[in-house]
């Protein structure tokens, strides 16, 4: 339901939302999930103004940008520099600290429109434009900062779309990891990130944005419910969903979800299950 005292974006109507979730679940279970399609379905679920024509237009924009890249510019560094010149220099895609305050920074269609966004959404643009042009490209989920890799491990080149596609040295990447974790990078951190891992991380960012804004618990709830449609999701999402349902005033549904989660963890953590059942009881009492 639209809440007039809240700023946009506003969610789609229930029938549209159900259709978007069906398509999201189907794509998430595909043999080769389509990353931009999943990101655009997230955008449509959170921003009711994004219709199917808008989704098609966003995909067409990625195609158009890919068509502006030179044909096979060379090795990994040449690819990284070519994409930087196109997206960072010519089209101005980049990020700033202020972008973390805006939900639009996590919505692919808005990132394509504004040329601004969080590291992971800018990386999705880099990935899809470069991939469509034939580049050997993949996402790299460094702790706290998402970047893009070009080429095989032996001559891998990393680029940071948040900084307009700046090519990173080994020291740059190490500093990013040390800044986030306090420890040097493990080689496994540089492995290509599968599409569903990227999508889950996008939803994590949206959940974090909503968590800092209790008045937008509706956004957090939609992000959690999409995350639950991804295969092999964390069981704790059920607990988060229950809490968000209660915050949104859906006390019975929230209590039922909390009780369901308590049943899942009772075997391994009886005390936590008892505490969560108490939360469920408190939620039910708010109906009186």
From TrEMBL:
Pfam families linked: TPR_9, Transglut_core2
Domain Protein SirB1 N-terminal: 58-204
Ranges in a coiled coil: none
InterPro entries associated with the record: SirB1_N
Stored PANTHER family: F-BOX ONLY PROTEIN 21, SI:DKEY-261L7.2
Family listed: Belongs to the UPF0162 family.
Protein name: Tetratricopeptide repeat protein
Source species taxonomy: Bacteria, Bacillati, Actinomycetota, Actinomycetes, Kitasatosporales
């Amino acid at each position: 339901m639209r809440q007039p005292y809240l700023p946009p974006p506003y969610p789609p109507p229930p029938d549209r939302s159900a259709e978007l979730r069906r398509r999201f679940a189907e794509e998430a279970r595909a043999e080769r999930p389509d990353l931009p399609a999943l990101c655009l379905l997230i955008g449509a679920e959170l921003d009711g103004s994004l219709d199917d024509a808008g989704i098609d237009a966003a995909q067409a924009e990625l195609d158009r940008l890919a068509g502006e890249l030179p044909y096979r510019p060379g090795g990994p560094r040449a690819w990284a520099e070519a994409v930087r010149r196109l997206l960072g220099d010519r089209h101005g895609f980049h990020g700033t600290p202020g972008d973390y305050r805006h939900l639009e920074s996590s919505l692919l269609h808005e990132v394509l429109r504004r040329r601004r966004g969080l590291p992971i959404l800018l990386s999705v643009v880099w990935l899809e434009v470069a991939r469509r042009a034939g580049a050997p490209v993949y996402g790299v989920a460094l702790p706290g900062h998402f970047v893009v890799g070009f080429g095989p491990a032996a001559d891998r080149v990393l680029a940071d779309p948040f900084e307009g596609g700046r090519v990173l040295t080994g020291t740059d990447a190490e500093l990013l990891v040390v800044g986030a974790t306090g420890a040097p990078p493990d080689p496994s951190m540089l492995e290509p990130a599968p599409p569903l891992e990227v999508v889950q991380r996008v939803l994590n960012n949206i959940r974090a944005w909503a968590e800092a804004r209790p008045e937008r618990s509706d956004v957090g709830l939609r992000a959690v419910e999409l995350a639950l449609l991804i295969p092999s999701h964390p069981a704790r999402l059920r607990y988060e969903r229950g809490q968000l349902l209660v915050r949104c005033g859906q006390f019975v549904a929230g209590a039922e979800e909390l009780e369901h989660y308590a049943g899942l963890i009772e075997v391994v953590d009886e005390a936590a299950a008892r505490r969560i059942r108490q939360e469920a009881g408190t939620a039910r009492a708010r109906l009186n």
